[in-house]
Amino acid sequence: MINSNVYDYVNVLDKAMDAAALRNQALANNIANATTPGYKRQDVSFESELGKALGHNRSKSMDEKVGNVKLNRLKPRTFTDYDQYSYRLDGNNVDPDMEGVELAANQVKYNGLMDAVNQEFANLKMVTK
Questions:
Q1: pTM for the complete prediction?
Q2: Long-range contacts made by residues 13-16, C-beta under 8 angstroms, separation at least 24?
Q3: In 3-state terms, what secondary structure has residue 113?
Q4: 41 near 80, Cβ under 8 Å?
């Protein structure tokens, strides 16, 4: 078990959970600054990074792809959204309703990732019995 890839999925899921937590902070920050003149919303990009990491592997199975992911290169990126149109005269482009929807969707994603990690550990526990 020392040189096995038994925790590959857990490690990738951990990175995804970190990204979801970072996105939660960015969305909450957007809501907090919804009335700040000139504020531009921020968001976190992770899914595209994960897709690149999995897509660049020439492995045949998903297990091999996940096993070959270089975790030190798999990082969420925070970016400022200058493209979203501002309906306000002060230049703020935060739509509090949309941010609330995004926050709820992100929470569902985080809960799903947590369930996946718990299932991975349950599988490991079952195998070791």
A1: 0.86
A2: 13/113, 13/116, 13/117, 13/120, 14/117, 15/46, 15/50, 15/71, 15/74, 15/75, 15/76, 16/46, 16/50, 16/113
A3: helix
A4: yes
Q: Which two tokens stand for residue 84?
A: 């979203």
Q: Report domain extents, the chain.
A: 8-128
Handedness of CA 90, 93, 97, 100 (dihedral sign): negative
Give me the tens of pLDDT residue by residue for the chain, a chain 129 residues long.
Answer: 445 678 899 999 999 999 999 999 999 999 999 999 999 999 999 998 898 888 876 767 888 888 888 888 899 999 999 877 777 889 899 999 999 999 999 999 999 999 999 999 999 898 888
Question: Do the beta carbons of residue 29 and residue 41 sit within 8 Å?
Answer: no
What whole-number distance in Å separates Cα of residue 78 and Cα of residue 36? 20
